[in-house]
Design goal:
Layout (H helix, E strand, L loop, with lengths): L6 H14 L2 H5 L6 H18 L8 E5 L5 H8 L3 E6 L2 H13 L6 E5 L12 E7 L7 H14 E12 L27 H10 L2 E8 L1 H10 L8 H20 L5 H6 L2 E8 L2
Parallel strand pairs: 1-2, 1-4, 2-3, 4-5
Antiparallel strand pairs: 5-7, 6-7
Helix pairs in contact: 3-9, 8-9
The protein binds S-adenosylmethionine (SAM).
The site of S-adenosylmethionine (SAM) has 21 residues, from helix 1 and helix 4.
């Protein structure tokens, strides 16, 4: 464990973040125009649905770093029994509220815990999801977290994770933090190269299923201008974002284009036989 990482400070940061903004901005891009976060949310959840094997009903899923439950609730709606782990009590409270509202509370269990040490037996889950968490963990905690996910996944199960594209021209000017900030925040660029290295050692197979090059380009172009545009042009922008999403969902997952432009990849991880 990194000596400088405080779970309490991280929990406090994420709970405060949820109280300070709308639920989507709290778990996606803080301060981004709402329509960009809505578009990114759709890319992740549509890509997730495409990646799911049929017959999720009654399957045991684990959502690590579940936040407000965008992913957990999507899985529960499709019939999975979902164990949702997060270290922020406020995030879990919001998730439970949403689960009741959407009538899936009986399919949800929430556990307040850090992701790097989880209170479950080995090989328990048919599916593990981990979206938007790994980049918020310092290296040592991140490594333990992914090993926990592999330990908990059944030999026949699959894990789905969203990871940064470290080759993205849009992310190349991001400055990874060396250590957690005093307010509890930590972010760093965690790419496919890191995941592939660890998977090779752990005998896990990695496959990229989806990428978001069109969305990432639109995000770059629009993120500073959308709020100041007129309502009429916002309608036009929504149309462009819908087209970008469609193209990202239909495109080959890891083309030359997506290697340069995508900001995120959805990857599938399976235990090698
Ligand atoms: C960017 S949000 C993503 C939430 C959700 N997976 C989603 O995609 O909507 C990151 C979440 O990870 C949680 N988190 C941060 N560090 C954690 C840790 N060490 N263990 C468990 N959860 C953590 C935060 O509280 C927050 O809810």
């Amino acid at each position: 464990m990194s000596a400088k990482y405080s779970k309490e400070a991280a929990a406090g940061f994420w709970s405060r973040r949820l109280k300070s903004t709308d639920p989507l901005a709290a778990v996606l891009t803080y301060n981004a125009p709402k329509i960009l976060n809505e578009s990114y949310d759709k890319w992740e959840r549509e890509s997730l649905k495409k990646a799911l094997s049929p017959g999720l009903v009654g399957k045991k899923a684990l959502d690590i770093g579940c936040g407000t439950g965008r992913i957990s609730l999507t899985l529960a709606k499709l019939g999975a029994n979902v164990t949702c782990v997060d270290l922020s009590a406020a995030m879990l409270k919001h998730l439970n509220f949403e689960a009741r509202k959407r009538k899936v509370a009986s399919k949800i269990i929430t556990i307040e815990s850090s992701a790097d040490k989880l209170p479950f037996n080995d090989n328990l889950f048919d599916m593990v999801t981990c979206f938007g968490l790994l980049e918020h963990l310092p290296a040592a905690v991140r490594r333990k977290t992914i090993l926990e996910a592999f330990r908990l996944l059944k030999p026949t199960g699959k894990m789905l994770a969203v990871i940064n594209n470290s080759g993205s021209i849009f992310l190349k000017n991001s400055y990874p933090m060396k250590e957690q900030q005093r307010n509890g925040y930590f972010v760093s660029l965690v790419g496919l190269d890191w995941l592939e290295k660890i998977c090779e050692k752990q005998r896990m197979k990695v496959k990229v299923l989806s990428a978001n090059p069109n969305y990432a380009a639109m995000h770059y172009i629009l993120s500073n201008s959308v709020d100041s545009l007129t309502t009429k042009s916002q309608e036009g922008i929504k149309d462009i974002l819908r087209q970008s999403l469609k193209q990202d969902l239909e495109a080959a997952s890891i083309s030359k284009f997506s290697r340069f432009l995508a900001s995120h990849f959805l990857v599938e991880l399976r235990k090698a036989n």
